[in-house]
Here is the input.
Amino acid sequence: MHLLHPGERNYPELLGAIPSPPPLYVRGTITADDALAVAIVGSRAATPYGVEVAERLAAELAARGMTIVSGLARGIDAAAHRGALGAGGRTVAVLGCGIDLVYPPENRALARAVEAQGALVSQFAGSVPALPGHFPARNRTLAGLTLGVVVVEAAERSGALITAGFAADLGREVFAVPGRITSMTSVGTNRLIQDGAKLTTCWQDVVSELSEPWRRMVRASSPTTHEPSRPDAESDEGRILVLLTPDEPQHIEQLIMRGGLEPARVAATLVALELGGWARQLTGQRWVSVGARARRT
Here is the structure.
């Protein structure tokens, strides 16, 4: 275990940029690459749908080099950590108790795995118990460590909504996964979407909202030394790629009109093409195709 103070060399970059960042007790390792991070949080009383979505989303983002941050709680948090670990990626758990405790206790094995493949962090020392008043402060730290917060399931008064509120206050992105209108665990997420959160159904929805420097740090999920095969002509990627040229930038609105796909599908498809090395975004939401030589350099 070691203690990091704001301003020290290894203190997390994003957290250090918020007002009054806390000292952090750390078990495991925090690296510079962990700045490319997104939080996935949600209900402790998660539904099977929520658990599946959280695991899948965490795995897909972690496989592309993003660090998954969550709170080690039951339900969505635990699913997010498992998804990242299963994909061989990095994950960070922000605790609402002292660094020497694990809460809830049934997540001890998961905590050990997170420590080995990322870090456990807390602003509370030793064996300080998980008191209700600690969790708002924990949630602010969790939001501060990330580029954005994805809420998968949340009831009307869920703590995950507090985390999303902190993210918005800190200028970070807020994402929400839609759920059934009859489900109490989706009341909070559906309301977030009504209030302007990014509706999220896949990893591309998250990456597409990142600024260009961060988006360029996201990698393809399966790096290979071989030339990647061109997207199938009947797929969304193939339909959009055929519209792009290397020397005539096209605005996304043109591609939406010419491609005959919904705007959200076109945006997600362009991100997938960019990560696969087939397209590049220029300023002003203009896009060009990328030749084979450029993809290898």
